[in-house]
User: Fold these one by one.
Assistant:
Number 1:
Amino acid sequence: MSEQRQILADTADRLFADAVTSRRIEGFDAKLWQQTIEMGLPLLLAPEADGGAGGDWDDAGAVLHALGHHGVPIPLAENMIAAQLAADAGLELPSGPVSLATRVEGALQQAGTRFDGKLLGVPWGRHADAILAVVPGHTVLLRRTDATSLRHAHNLADEPRDDLIFDNAPAVCGPASDGTQASHLLALARCAQISGALEAALHKSVEYAQTRKQFGRAIGQFQAVQQQLAQFGAEVAAAMCATRAACRAATRGDASFQIAAAKLRCNLAIGFATSTAHQVHAAIGFTREFDLRQSTQRLWSWRTEGGNDRAWADVLGARVCARGDQFWADLTARDDAVSLT
């Protein structure tokens, strides 16, 4: 990690850590959102010419790792992606929060100036000033206030995942080069957040094992517990490595293969990691007052967001079958390309 990127990661980590330790955050944190704006984080992936920070996915991955580690409830990942896609399409975002819709049922009307349809499961939809969506061939920007209906919904971690219905609503649109780009970038963002939340759950579990005593000694001194925590650590390391490789590939260009591999690897790590964390903590880990849930409930939710295990396994399997005996050459070439940058 470069010195500049390390400074960015450390600054974001301090910001998020201070926010969650100074006050109990439930729901959208407007004060913290304003602080991220002052740091330029929502526009991190937008070019400097468009008023952004001109960062890349290595930078975004470091920030989103910290976001996931501290379980901060703001739509930063979605706004980052929306800023990148809007810049690619030549669209200007409003100053307030912008979310991202990857599940779209509807179509543009009247030469692309109106939109009829539904945006489903929009992260933080009720708090967004606008939502960016991709329909065939177009990137579309819609204002939340133009929705005729907004149904509140949540994921398992109580993060808003709202449904919005638009009826002949005003739309601003630009060209979209790839209809899968939004969903792939959301998957990559979730990988970074997952790796941070996994790391946080591991740290909490190790700390608890060192202080919780049974039979006259800390439970972390029992070999069975140590073995589980060691395997937990290996799962976290694997997820973090896969995520970092995908971020580096996204910075270089097409990262569809690496993103698929990273999301599947992160998803697979969640099962063992969360079960081990709750086994170590026992009954107290399931209580709402205990902060372990801030990591594990988000992990269970993010496992299905941006593509679940089967979806990405199907993608990888299809890619491997399509390449036949060239798969190993492709795999090693990808690793060599990333390691040289």
Number 2:
Amino acid sequence: MAAGLAAAAVPGRPPAAGGGAAARPRRLGTHPARGRDGRGGLSVAPRAGGARSRGVALVTALLVVALAAAAAAWAGREVGLSLARGERLAHAAQAALYARGMEAWALRILAADDPAVDHGGERWARPVPPLPVEGGAVRGAITSPEGRLNLNDLLRSEAARARFVRLCRLVDVDPGILPAILDWLDPDQTPRAPGGAEDEYYTLQDPAYRAANGPFADVRELRRVRGVDEAAYRRLAPYVAALPGEGAINVNLAPPLILQTLAEGLTEADGAALAEARAARPFGSVDELLRQPALAGRAVAKEGLAVASRFFVVRAEARVGRARARLASVVLRRRGVPTVVGRSLGRTGVME
């Protein structure tokens, strides 16, 4: 044993094999330079894993804060958008009420008007300029489509057909479209010749459709009739209407070109002379019109002519904030009592 201890004590000599106690392995984490601490225990070095844990926790905390800030910003944006949407909806509803108020005003004006004669110098015919209202403005106008030629009269009235042919010539449209228009109106499926068209023709178009075989509900339907291209439609549209039932041209409201269609051979100067005579003194009757020098010696059919109107169109537009409301109402006046028979947003189909 003494020899083993001596060998262990000699520097550089390895311990004797099989002799004495085996050398203890150094404990992990022991600082070899410091050995034992002052209290006789082992000193342990700080672990690197603790610093990494603190870094992960900091990054996580920053990420949570960033997510919370993003959520708060999104919520604020959504609240702002909701408030803006609510404001726009409120403004739109308010504008719609103002437009309906203009319609109610128009009905009162028409109820107070003398229904025996209607002309462009009456109170109802004067447009209402923009009027200030809370948050915006409202304006309106009343017109009568009965200064135009009613497409729905063409099937029943020979006088109306003659005027339509003259109108086509005046606006440089082929009068040959008349048979197709009559086929569009009549209830049968037999095409007129030449130039007529029924379902046999329209179902071959792309896209296919069918003839109305009934009255025009909208002037824009004229585009669907055989032979009426866009150019022809645009030339005719300012002078035609689509009114239900029997109509009559109010000669106190008809433009000079429509007045030219009252008889064969009338010139542009004749139409202008009739319009000037009417402006000086509105016609109180159709007979008064027929006594005008411009019509002397002319064969003028009294059928389908009048000096008063039954149908009117009320247009109203209101603006509140950035919202706008447009209303177009068709009014029928019977025995002096006006009644709304149609209403649409923007425009009505009885006239372009």
